[in-house]
Amino acid sequence: MKTQINHTAANSIILTTGMFDLLKEQVRKKKLTKFNEEKIIRELKGATQVLRSQLPPDVVDVNTRVSLLDLTDNTEVAYDFVTHEKARRKNGTESILSPIGVAIVGYREGDEVSWQTEGRIKKYLIKGVSRI
C-alpha cells in the first residue's frame, strides 16, 4: 500500500527519520544562527517523518540534485547533495549538512525557503529536485 503525502508550501517539511535526527543534532550542537535555529526547531515540531521508500521524489534529501533561484539577488545555482562523508567540492558535491543543505532539506520543488546567511536573511525558490 502506497502512502500519499499531501503537501503545500505552508505544510510541514518531509524528512526521513535519519534526517530528522541529524537536524536535531545540528540544533543541539548550536551550529546555527539564532534565526536559523528557531526556524529548524519550528520545522522539526511540524515535520512529517517517513521511511526513505516513502519519500516523494521532489523532496530535498541526501542524493538529490537541486536547482535554486536566489530570490534575494535573482541568481540560480545547482547542488548535488550527498552524505557529509562523500561530499567533495572537486567532484561538485555538497554535504546535506552544509548550511544550504540544512536550510532546504525536507522542502519540495516549488517551495520558498528563508535562511540567514552572511548576516542577512535570503529567500530561495526550489526550482527543481531530482535523485542522483
UniProtKB/TrEMBL annotation:
<keyword id="KW-0251">Elongation factor</keyword>
<feature type="domain" description="Transcription elongation factor GreA/GreB C-terminal">
    <location>
        <begin position="56"/>
        <end position="130"/>
    </location>
</feature>
<dbReference type="InterPro" id="IPR023459">
    <property type="entry name" value="Tscrpt_elong_fac_GreA/B_fam"/>
</dbReference>
<dbReference type="Pfam" id="PF01272">
    <property type="entry name" value="GreA_GreB"/>
</dbReference>
<keyword id="KW-0648">Protein biosynthesis</keyword>
<protein>
    <submittedName>
        <fullName>GreA/GreB family elongation factor</fullName>
    </submittedName>
</protein>
<dbReference type="InterPro" id="IPR001437">
    <property type="entry name" value="Tscrpt_elong_fac_GreA/B_C"/>
</dbReference>
<dbReference type="GO" id="GO:0003746">
    <property type="term" value="F:translation elongation factor activity"/>
</dbReference>
<dbReference type="InterPro" id="IPR036953">
    <property type="entry name" value="GreA/GreB_C_sf"/>
</dbReference>
<dbReference type="InterPro" id="IPR018151">
    <property type="entry name" value="TF_GreA/GreB_CS"/>
</dbReference>
